[in-house]
Each structure stands twice: as C-alpha cells, then as structure tokens.
Design goal:
By secondary structure, the protein is mainly beta. Helix content is 7%, strand content 56%. The strands form 4 sheets. The chain has a 26-stranded antiparallel barrel. Strands 3, 4, 5, 6, 7, 8, 9, 10, 11, 12, 13 and 14 form a 12-stranded antiparallel β-sheet that branches. A two-stranded antiparallel ribbon has the order 1-2. Strand 46 and strand 47 form a beta hairpin. It is elongated, with a radius of gyration of 35 Å. The N terminus is likely disordered.
Length: 795
C-alpha cells in the first residue's frame, strides 16, 4: 500500500489507528472462531491466560490481562547457579568422541551449565575450548531469553553465541520476533540481523518492526535500529533509517516518538531528540513544524545535583508566516539548597505578548498576565532569617493600562529575628525590610522610583495546653518612603501603625462507634480579636499591595491587605468553629467542617485608593466549608460565602470527585461568584460556571475521555473535550477533539472559538506519538496525571 500524495500526515495517523483496530479486531474474531484447547505457542514460553489463572497465586506474574497470555521463563532458570561457576552437564541418546577430542552428541541433546541450557538434535563440543556447534532444532535458554534456530555456534567459556534462522523471546520486555542471524559480540549486547521485533502476542500482527539490524544493549537499557520499516496490520507506514528505543526505564540518547496534531496553526508536527549527557544532565531538542507558520526549534536542558535542580528552555521561530517576524521564548527555573541557604530562579521572557496564545509550548512554563522574572537568596538560621531578591515582570496582557503595571523590586532585602524568652511562652520578633521600586514606564501618574523601609517589632505570649490556647500579640509597623515622582513636592513619607490581637481556641473531642468503626469527633471553637487604629494612607502608593480574597483563613489574619503599603484599620471579633471526624482505625480525616464570621465594631476606612469608599457593614460574609471523604472512591468539597445582612449569596465553590482503583475518574464542580458581593473587586466579573470531566473505561480495552465546561452567565460552552482511547496487548491510542474559547487577537473581541484534533499513539515497548495530548488532558481533567503515573503494566 502506498500513501497518496493528497493524504496529510494527520490523516495517516488516523488511518494507522483504524488499521490497528482492524488488525486487533480480526485477531480477536479469529480467536473467538477457533477456541484453543492446546496452547500452540508454548514452545515460545507463551503461557495462556487460562494457564496463568491455574497457577498458584504466589507464582503468577504481574499480568494486566490486556494480553491473552504472558512470556514466562521456566522457574528453574532463575534459581540456577551462575554458568561461569558451574560444570557442564550433558545428556543425549548417543555419544561419541572424534580423534581430535571433539565430543559428538546426537538425539535429544541437552547441555546445562548453571542457568544456561542448550538443546539440539546434534551437538559437537571441543572439550578444551568449549567451542560448541549445534545443528537441528536448536534451543538456547538463559534467564530472560529464549532463542530457537536451525544452527548455532556457542562458546560456553566466553559466553558467545551465533545462531541462524531464528525465533527469539526476551521475556522481561515482552518481546519476540525472528532473525536471519543472532549473535552477541558482548555478554550484554545482542545483535539481530534481518530481523523482526514486536511486543504483540505470538499470533498478532498489529505492529511489527522489520529491520536490517537491531542491536539490544541490556547494560544500557536501549535498542538501536538500522534500516527499519514499521508495519501496522501488515501495511508499511514508516521507514526509519536509524532509530533508538528504550527497553527499560533508563535514559539513552536518541530520537523520541514524534508528536502530531491539528489545530489553529494547521498541522503541528515535532520530532524530539533526547540527549543523555550525564547521569544528572540531559537535554531535549525538538524541531517543530507548523504548516501555517513555519519551522521552529524548542530545546530544554535539565540538571540535578546533590544541592541543585533546574531546567533551562528556549523556543525560536525565525520567520512566522502569519505574524511577520521572528519569535522566541526563554525560561529558567532553579532551586538550590546549601545547608541553611536556599536560592531560587523563576524567569520567563517571550518576544511578544501573543507568543503563548499563538504557539503554546511543551516547555516547563505557562502563560500568565505577568511573566515572572525573579531570583532570590535566603538564609534560615536558628535566630535570624535573611533574604534578598530581585524581581521584574513582563506583562503580556495588552489590556492592562501602563499605570497599573507592577513595579520592579531592584532589590528587596529582608531580615526576621526570633527571640524566645527561654522556656517562657513569651517571644519577641523583629522584622526589617528594604525595597527599591522601579516602574517599567518612564511617564506614569505615580512614582517612577521609590525606596521603602519597613520595621516590624512584635511581642506575643503563646499559652498552649492540650485543651486549647490563648495568644495575645502586639505588633508595631513602621514605614518610611523616599519617592521620585513628577510634580511631587513632598517626596518623603513616614507612617506608623500599632496592631493588637488575641487569638484563642478550645479543643474538645469525644470517641464513639458507628457502623462497626471507631471514630473521634472534635469540636474546635476559635475566638480572635483584632484592633488596629485608623491611619490615613491614601497618599501612599501601592507598590506591591493588594486586598486578600475573603475566605475562612481571613477570619484570623492581622491585616486584610498583602504587601507592605497598607495596614488595615480594624476593631473586630472573629468567631470560628471547626469539627473533624477521624477514623481511629485508619487515621483518615473523613469529615472536616468549618464555619465562621467577623463582627465589625467600626467601619473600615483604609482602602487601596481614595476612590474606594469605606466599608460600613457590621458583619462579614458568613463563610462555611466542608471536606468529606464519602468513601474510598467518592469525596466532596464545598465552600460558600453568604451576606447575611443583604441576604445575598456571594460565592459558591463546590465539587464531587470520583477515583476508582481501575483508573476511572470523574470530576463535577460548580463555581459561582457575585460581582456585587461585599468587598468585591470593582473590576471583577460575575462567574457562574459548571465543569464536568471524566476518564471512564467502558471495557477492559475501550475508554472514553471528556470535559464540558459551561458558562451559565454567557450561555455558552468554554471548553469541550471528547475522545476515545483503546488499549490492546501491544499498542494504545487516543483520538481527542477539543473545542474551546481562547483569547482573541482581534481587539474588538474578548474571546474567540478554537478547535483542535489530537492523536496519541503508543506502540508498547517503543514509545508514544502525541505527547502534547498528555499536557492538554492534564490541564483539562483534574487527576489525569496521577492516574497515568499509577497505571499498571500494559502487558
């Protein structure tokens, strides 16, 4: 069969999928039409599923059931001695010795030397050199390998063999095939000339590699193929002049299986090349072809040492045919630990704001409105902690005004000292911080540069007992600013704030029995008082400050702002109650319920800007949350906020999650946020969305994949994924269609629809095609990657 010129590569993949399905279905139909009473492939050490089921449980292999059987080496070989330290034992119907001292054995000849066994119709062995010739019905066994042939030369001393007209089995990697010649130039290397290679069942031709030469290096864990043709269902689909593939989990330099897809950029095809540079260093070079844009290169370098780990990545498209210019991406992530020192780097830069929107990437980075460009170094001592960081951003959301772009910190230096008073509950702390801010734009309404110094001493008394705790705390916030701003006459500011708080709680519990299990139920009431006098801060800019999102944790925080430019005024009491249900036999927390609310004793005048009015409510939203482990498969979580004064539902986040031992998973969630809620961000939009996703096996071999995200407010789907997956004994495939809303390049539109067809294809034991499908599904379906990592062996 020849591919026609008008068939695209993506169509080839789909046709390949169909050929495999037809080949597998044909094999299944044949097996159904001719039920086996005798295992015809026992000579290949193939043990049928019925035979495996009849074996003692402790002797059964880790068999997934995907294959109708398993290659099992005789148990006697695994317990036999090393051939190098074993004598040769021989048996035959006839024995003779030639004048030159060569022993000739004929008729059911068996030679055994430890864990190595040789069988043949005739054997000639030189007693001095142990050079051995075998003729007729040759069978050579050693742990993990079986070779059958017509003729062979074996040297029992030097562990060399040379076999012609062969069939072979490598048990550990579930491989069998044939070869014109098999020989081993080294103890751990096997070379197969004019050979075939497959992980399919003996009677299955779903796929096979036919090659001029295959080299299997068991010491390195990789195979090397020269002059290979990949056949699917007996039809050649791919020619590989040279190629490498893994035979176990170890790494080796070579080409990985390509990735192919179709979407907004037309055909998207890439061929990764993996470089195993050292045990702790590797790299991947990925040439990538986008039919609508051109050819590009992506690369990633990874390193790992006793103290450091990280990755450096880059992408370069020299001439984007749609964009009209070159495009590039650089990313670096680093973490280093040196005794008490820790340093980190998180850096991403792109050539233009639409890079991620147009090109996406498989590198270790993701798109956000502000790309982080940060490095820091921290010291963690017994008394003092020190830190220093430099941070900048690249803003790729063009809708964000220049005035509101985040400030750079060049640098920020901090220190925190802890001074406990011996065994006393009394503890003093001293926090200090210096930051130099710089705005990325030269002309802005606020400061272009500024220096800020913060000094935060505090004292607390932490009284704790088994039944509860009381912790009064007094903090003092001192801030100094020196700002550089156009038309600013008073460029210095000095402001101080005091904060007093008392945090307290009780711990009550009771054991009881229910449904034959022992439980412990806790009741943990918590009372938190916070007082902070009002100080006018409207004339201070907000360099790194934002208002925190309200949640249960916010009930017990000293400051309702993050960053260092606002200290919220407060006179309030927070009440919270948590109850947990713990299974004492398993130690699992099966239910955790928390409720709480803040009672404001005065208005809150301090806001981010003077345009924000004071908050005059006397009650915060009533917040409640629950986490319930319903059973070993089902769980439920929910958090809701209710404005009890206006009788308004502010927000709901809830979802059910299902995880089964067979890999089935399902997620059902609902997310609601009212843009008119108390304390809502004026720029926030109302959210009213549902999300349903699943991966479900409808049989042992067939499965369904899906996601449906629906916006109830806009009455439209924002992400729809549907696909099928099929797994047989020796191959696995997925075909997935995705339609979703993406940010539009058209300024008149916020979002626009986009669609992609994704194919993932794996020949078991060789590798997979379509790795980008994993990335897409991991983003779309919660729990996907964990499910993939825990999948059992596919044979």
């Amino acid at each position: 069969m020849n591919w026609k010129n008008n068939i695209s590569p993506i169509e080839k993949v789909v046709v390949t999928f169909l050929l495999l399905a037809i080949a597998t279905a044909t094999g299944a139909a044949t097996a159904a039409a001719e039920p086996e009473t005798v295992n015809p492939y026992r000579y290949l050490d193939w043990v049928s599923g019925e035979e495996i089921a009849a074996m003692p449980e402790d002797q059964r292999p880790a068999h997934s059931g995907m294959c109708e059987g398993y290659y099992i080496s005789p148990p006697s070989l695994t317990t036999a001695a090393d051939p190098a330290h074993s004598d040769v034992q021989a048996s035959a119907d006839h024995f003779d010795t030639l004048p030159d001292g060569t022993n000739v054995l004929t008729g059911d000849v068996v030679l055994k030397q430890g864990s190595r066994e040789l069988y043949s119709d005739e054997v000639k062995m030189n007693r001095a050199t142990r050079a051995t010739e075998l003729n007729g019905n040759v069978k050579i066994r050693q742990p993990g390998m079986l070779i059958l042939g017509e003729r062979a030369k074996v040297n029992l001393n030097e562990k060399q063999l040379d076999v012609t007209d062969t069939e072979y089995v490598i048990h550990q990697i579930h491989v069998h095939g044939s070869a014109g010649r098999i020989y081993n130039p080294d103890d751990q290397i096997l070379i197969l000339d004019h050979s075939s290679y497959t992980t399919c069942e003996p009677n299955d031709n779903s796929w096979v590699i036919k090659a001029k030469q295959i080299k299997i290096d068991q010491s390195e864990g990789w195979g090397e193929v020269k002059g290979a043709q990949v056949q699917v269902g007996g039809v050649p689909i791919l020619y590989l002049p040279w190629w490498t593939f893994p035979i176990d989990d170890r790494r080796q330099t070579g080409f990985l299986f390509p990735t192919i897809g179709s979407g907004q950029n037309g055909l998207d095809f890439s061929v990764p090349y993996y470089l195993n540079l050292a045990p702790n260093l590797d790299a991947t070079l990925t040439p990538r072809f986008l039919s609508d844009r051109g050819s590009m290169m992506e690369s990633e370098f990874r390193y790992l040492s006793e103290n450091t780990k990280g990755d450096i990545g880059g992408g370069y498209l020299p001439d984007d045919q749609e964009f009209g210019d070159s495009r590039n991406l650089i990313t670096w992530h680093h973490v280093g630990h040196y005794d008490k020192w820790v340093n980190k780097v998180d850096y991403t830069r792109v050539s233009d704001s639409d890079y991620f929107l147009d090109l996406d990437t498989t590198l270790n980075t993701s798109s956000t409105a502000h790309l982080n460009q940060r490095t820091d170094m921290r010291y963690y001592g017994d008394t003092w902690n020190f830190g220093g960081q430099v941070q900048s951003f690249q803003t790729i959301d063009e809708l964000i005004p220049d005035n509101t772009l985040p400030y750079r910190m060049l640098p920020q230096l901090s220190a925190l000292g802890r001074f406990p008073m011996g065994d006393s509950p009394l503890e003093f702390k001293l926090g200090t911080e210096y930051t130099y801010f710089e705005h990325p734009e030269k002309i802005v309404t606020g400061p272009t540069t500024a220096e800020r110094i913060r000094l935060i001493p505090s004292a607390s008394y932490n009284f704790r007992r088994a039944w509860g705790f009381v912790q009064p705390k007094l903090s003092y916030y001192q801030r100094y600013y020196d700002m550089n701003q156009v038309n600013l006459t008073d460029d210095e500011r000095n402001l101080s704030n005091g904060i007093f708080s008392v945090d307290s709680g009780l711990y009550l519990d009771r054991p009881f029995e229910m449904a034959g299990s022992r439980y412990l139920q806790t009741l943990e009431p918590r009372l938190f008082y916070l007082y902070s006098p009002y100080k006018d801060q409207n004339d201070l800019p907000t360099f790194d400050t934002a208002k925190t999102s309200f949640s249960y944790e916010q009930l017990f925080r000293e400051n309702r702002f993050t960053g260092g430019d606002r200290v919220g005024d407060a006179n309030q009491i927070s009440l919270g109650l948590t109850s947990r249900l713990i299974n004492e036999q398993t130690g699992q927390e099966e239910i955790n319920v928390s409720i709480g609310q803040i009672f404001y004793l005065r208005d809150r005048k301090v806001q981010l800007t003077q345009n924000n009015p004071p908050e005059e409510t006397t009650l915060s939203p009533f917040v409640a949350r629950i986490n319930w482990l319903i059973d070993s498969e089902w769980s439920w979580r929910a958090e809701t906020q209710m404005d009890t004064q206006e009788n308004n539902l502010d927000s709901i986040v809830t979802g059910f999650r299902y995880r089964a031992e067979n890999g089935n998973l399902m997620n059902l969630s609902y997310n609601f946020y009212d843009d008119g809620a108390v304390g809502a961000d004026p720029l926030a939009e109302k959210i009213n969305q549902t999300d349903f996703s699943f991966i479900w096996s409808v049989s042992q071999r067939w499965g369904l994949i899906g996601r449906w995200g629906y916006d109830l407010e806009e009455q439209r789907s924002y992400d729809t994924v549907f696909g099928i997956e099929y797994e047989s004994c020796c191959w696995r495939a997925r075909l997935v269609n995705r339609r979703y809303l993406r940010e539009s390049n058209d300024p008149s539109l916020v979002v626009e629809p986009s669609q992609g067809i994704y194919v993932q294809f794996e020949l078991k034991g060789l590798g997979g095609l379509g790795g980008s499908v994993d990335t897409m599904l991991d983003d779309a379906i919660s729990g996907y990657q964990l499910r993939e990592n825990s999948r059992p062996s596919g044979f």
